[in-house]
Protein: Protein kinase domain-containing protein
Amino acid sequence: MAPSGSKTQENNTSPELPEELPYDFLKQITNDFAEDRKISGSPFGTLYKGFVPDGDRVIAVRKLQENAPMPADKTFSKEVQNVMALKHENIVQLVAFCSETTKKLVQFDGKYIQADITESLLCYEYLPDGSLEEKLFEAEAAEDVSSAEPSIDWGTRFKIIKGICKGLQYLHKLDIPIIHMDLKPENILLDANMVPKIADFAFSRVFGQEQTRLCTQTVVGSYGYMAPEYLYKGEISAQSDIYSLGLMIIEITTREKNCPEKDQPSARKFIDKVCKEWTPEHIASKYALLDSEGHKQVKACIEIGLKCVEVDRKCRPPIDEIVDTLNGLRESRTAKKVTRTSTTSAKLRSIFGDKKK
Structure:
């Protein structure tokens, strides 16, 4: 696929990796997926640091759970190759993948049998500063979240929101659109300048030309971020991503974490709470150091987020409208700018440091 409007980026890392890598090679560079190479984990897979020989290069290797709910092998490989063509400031670069079927002894009905197990892995550029989840909530947890001086100032939060939206706009406006299907703070990585990059395309869908919606019987994703029509009807569209985007915008803006509950897969209780509590007076108290323009930005972002999480997908704004609205907001000229070092920075450096262990 040759995405339209793509922005090329120089890749200073060498040597270049082939697009499809053998499973044994990925086992080698992660030291057989050793615990001390683990970056993060989720119900759908685990992310490891991989040290590529003959170049001293570090890549991030996500090992999906065995026989994960993914498309069939050929479809998986085709969609991954489409994602590898993406070049954008706010998209993590996918550099290689592996989809390999091996025979393993597994226990079944009290007996050991030989079964075909498909190993699916995705390799990304390595970003040592970690995820938005960690920066946004681990740092806040170590401080007084009622403070008017958050660990990440509003200007940086607004920049992160705009960056995520621009990355999603790029995906949705390709000649052959890509729907991410798993947008959440954990899947937004940050570079050294706090530039957000959308990551983890394990559940993404590539739409055909002129296609705007499809249905599936296999619903996979992250509890608390799934759009209602996808969760209950299996409907997939660009508006599925808009719903998840809205929840992230709300979290980034309010500094409140969306904690998924078993009976709240679409986070309606969290949404109702924000809608009720975040009045102009509440915004002014939570962001006491901001000027009027800053308060307008906060209010606008909450309003955008709430529009994005409308139950009826047809009422959600398209990504172009969201980006235009954000671009139209005037810059805050707050005189006081608070810069604070996160109490978790040492921990993050120890986990995401770029030196070999």
About this structure: The first strand starts at residue 38 and ends at 42. The radius of gyration is 21 Å.
